[in-house]
Specification:
Two copies of one chain form a homodimer.
Chain A: H1 29-32, E1 42-44, H2 65-78, E2 87-91, H3 93-105, E3 114-118, H4 126-131, E4 138-143, E5 152-157, E6 177-181, E7 200-204, H5 205-209, E8 217-221, H6 224-238, H7 243-266, H8 275-297, E9 300-301, E10 307-310, E11 315-318, E12 323-328, H9 336-342, E13 348-349, E14 359-363, H10 368-380
Parallel strand pairs in A: 3-4, 3-5, 5-6, 6-7
Antiparallel strand pairs in A: 2-8, 7-8, 9-12, 10-11, 12-14, 13-14
Helix pairs in contact in A: 2-7, 3-6, 8-10
């Protein structure tokens, strides 16, 4: 059964747990209902955004200039990724940009499809995104550590979905190519320790601000030819990317940056207008609650807490991954996903991520209500 | 060179002709700047549309209920396609739905990719949309009339892009499948003669209302299993479709239907709130002007004018295709696209549509300014 069609029903408590199977970032909604919400309101008159074209002089001709501007402003504020000298591309979520990167990096005239690999545990969507059309250009080849060869595309997700680990490429061949999926490299999830400057870096509004339904991601790409090919992918696949969605994303990203700039100007306290501070505080509370529940239960374990100096917030902080990678230490439990389902906690099995059955992934970014029910149930499992 | 990256520059007269190479439906902008525009304005607060999910009980879980409602209302108003008993699916433009239909109709376990065919001249994007990922599921096989075999997917575009002809399937095997691309089956382009009820019918906001930049298309699908597979394609490819874009499309489609309902209620005259009447009048003027220019020049020809009784407007009208399929009758001109480019008219060659070099496709839905320059230049070519 699909991860997205699990029969979840709204407003019925036993089923609210289904939400934790997906990383639906509804946690952020409370922030956007706060004082900053007003400035993020989008108004589009009936006659706007009618043309296919956004910026005909740009190699990504469907990229709204206002969206590109806000992407550059936000990275400059946070310092998590270099933008100087990079091409900005927009995609219908970062899933589309991931496929665009495969398309751009694969050799169209090769005898065999290029192998796509990632270190286990890897994001469960990478294999189907690579293979669902049975493309002759690329083929999923599993764990990067088990790969033997020189030609490959290695996907590095850091912080990693599902386990939150900080990662670097494990393969080092000159003819190999890397895609860096940095969806979670934002201050609410992890200390920002470096301004990254990889060849292809993918981001998404979903995980940055919580606007998953807008379906907007972006890529920072160093090489012009690769950027052109990626843009070509979006052109073929969907004749570009919705302008309305881009305007929405620009509004939301702009509100985040404005929140910090205005706060500095006003020297005011509180974090109601500071997305990353607000969200980091909430995430840290949730991780405390989860670790307490795990300790109370006594049969589970989590990855060790990791701390570092955050160059954005200028303090030493622990990481608060968007997912909990929960392992069961009880010998009799062989299939943790099933075991938790019996306890009305719906998660995604480690097998989907190239790992074993004794581990599951759980969303840490769902609503307060869903998260509260989850930790309470977890604490009582013996 | 890509059809979308032709180096077109804004506001420079010699280059304005580049627009006619694409079917960018900017003609409609004047309508949306009129009295109806106000009611089509979209407002989205910062906290809305955050979740991935739109309607968890629907097989197309990312379909906004308000968008589905407006799709059904509009078809009920126009009478061009059956909606009763059909599943509505949303896509990032109808290009994505076309690929979703190929994915749903192909057999994943087949030895060889299924052949995708369409009668010549066919829409120039069908071959690259089918083949750009070198899929093992389906493969472009050209002209339907030249196809020999029982297993195929036939694409029927009616009215046809590029030549405006009304089409039916030419292949009749029991194991063959059809996709009906009805992007242009709206009253501004052609008389609505039947309420169509094919298995898979594709539509797009671009050609219906002119909102190409919103990137929203929809499919009406009879079979539940096919609809599920098509929905699965959008899930894999882009994790659904932008909610903001769907809300925009819903607003625009709703304004069109409201325009007719309010007009009837007020018994008012004029067509400023009646999209199809307004657009049909403009299209008819343009076709008159084009036929006059062709006659003045003396070296070109166009498909014959076709008329029929329109069940929507309840009168007999001629068709006004969104593209002119212009043929050159002058013996010395072998490559019409190049010949017209020398005359500063940028078009798309017949070769892109599976036809010959002596014919080109020209957009009839561009701005008044671009269209005016075009017909004036055309009339003077001898």
């Amino acid at each position: 059964m699909s991860a997205f069609t699990s029969g979840k029903k709204k407003n019925t408590k036993p089923c609210v747990m289904y939400l934790l199977r997906r990383g639906d970032p509804t946690m952020f909604e409370t922030f956007w209902r706060g004082p900053i919400g007003e400035s993020a309101t989008l108004v589009i008159p009936g006659y706007q955004t009618m043309s296919y074209f956004s910026d005909v002089g740009n190699l990504c001709w469907f990229l709204e200039p206002g969206f590109e501007r806000e992407v550059r402003r936000l990275h400059s504020l946070v310092g998590n990724a270099a933008v100087e000298g990079y091409h900005v591309l927009v995609g219908t979520g970062s899933s589309q940009l991931f496929q665009a990167a495969l398309y751009a990096l694969a050799l169209p005239i090769a005898d065999a499809p290029v192998s796509v690999v990632s270190t286990t545990p890897f994001y469960s969507m990478y294999p189907p995104l690579t293979d669902f059309l049975n493309s002759g250009l690329y083929r999923w080849a599993g764990d990067a550590n088990a790969f033997d060869g020189n030609d490959y595309i290695e996907v590095i997700c850091s912080p990693n979905n599902p386990d939150g680990s900080i990662r670097e490429a494990v393969l080092k061949s000159k003819s190999g190519k890397d895609i860096h999926d940095l969806a979670y490299y934002w201050p609410q999830y992890t200390p920002i320790t470096h301004m990254l400057a990889h060849d292809i870096m993918l981001f998404t509004v979903s995980k940055c601000t919580g606007h998953a339904g807008t379906r907007i991601g972006w890529a920072l790409v160093k090489d012009k030819e690769v950027a052109q090919k990626m843009s070509k992918f979006m052109e073929q696949s969907t004749i570009g990317v919705s302008k309305d969605a881009q305007l929405r994303a620009a509004k939301v990203l702009g509100a985040v940056t404005d929140g910090y700039e205005h706060q500095l100007a006003a020297a005011a306290g509180g974090d109601a207008n500071l997305l990353f501070h607000y969200a980091r505080r909430k995430m840290a509370h949730r991780w405390c609650a989860l670790r307490a529940a795990v300790a109370a239960s006594g049969i589970f374990s989590l990855p060790n807490e990791v701390a570092g100096f955050c160059t954005f917030t200028k303090d030493t902080v622990t990481s608060n991954p968007a997912f909990a990678w929960l392992r069961c230490e009880k010998q009799e439990v062989e299939d943790l996903e099933s075991f938790l389902r019996e306890n009305k906690i719906i998660t995604r099995s480690g097998t989907k991520f190239g790992a074993d059955q004794k581990v599951v992934r759980i969303s840490m970014v769902d609503t307060d209500e869903a998260f509260g029910i989850f930790v309470n149930r977890l604490a009582t499992i013996k």
